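Thread: quick sanity check before group meeting

JM: Hey all, I'm pulling together slides for Thursday and realized we never actually wrote out the predicted structure for the chain we discussed last week. Dropping the sequence here so it's in one place. If anyone has concerns about the input, flag it before I start.
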Amino acid sequence: MSQKRRLDQIMEMIQRNGFVTTEQLVEKFQVTPQTIRRDLNELAGQNRLRRHHGGAGIDSSTVNTAYQDRKIMNLEAKERIAQALVQHVPDNASMFINIGTTTETIARALLHKRGLSVVTNNLHVASILSAKEDFHIIIAGGEVRNRDGGIVGEAAVDFINQFKMDYGIIGISGIHSDGSLLDFDYREVRVAQSIIANSNEVLLAADHSKFGRNAMVRLGSIAQADHVFTDAPPPEPIRKLLSSNDVELHII
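JM (edit): ok, ran it. Output follows.
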């Protein structure tokens, strides 16, 4: 198969699925990982896709990558971020945890803590944390998104507003160069805004792929966080914004 034909088929797979792993492409085309990485780099250079650790996808401001693909994207980085973030959370703390695969990774890292009280609009987070008998898990009411187990809508917003918690643990889909926190579903954003407003400390978890990623709904500003946990230095304008707003940056 010619490289041009392979590149076209790679784009067809990504357009169909939103994200593909390097391993999937190696298996399909029966070539070496080095060949696939060169192909992906060429397509990225043409601005046809965006490289991620372990694969590639298409950035859209209106549609998020499929949930099952997001679960494996940058997983090692998410796990490192999770381990660092949970060290900031003491036993017997109360917290909100919002929707996202990063916050689900954090939930798994929280299992060694004791006596946590958690309010979440993420069914997967609730399922993970309910394994601990000494945890108190409360699930927000509202509409369940079947694609990822997120609970959204006005009922969820009203529910969150009944609480005042020690921490708000937030994941995000994208961070603009001006510091805007971006997501795809305005209903999800409304819930996250309520979490931020009702948290004594906001802990934002975002791997390097989130910086510069596009999404159409503005949640707020990264300056609203108290701590930002990531796996690589953010762009210089973001670092300046964090410093000027006394947001503590943790690079894992």
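AS: nice. The chain is about 40% helix and 25% strand. The first strand starts at residue 19 and ends at 21.
JM: adding both to the slides.
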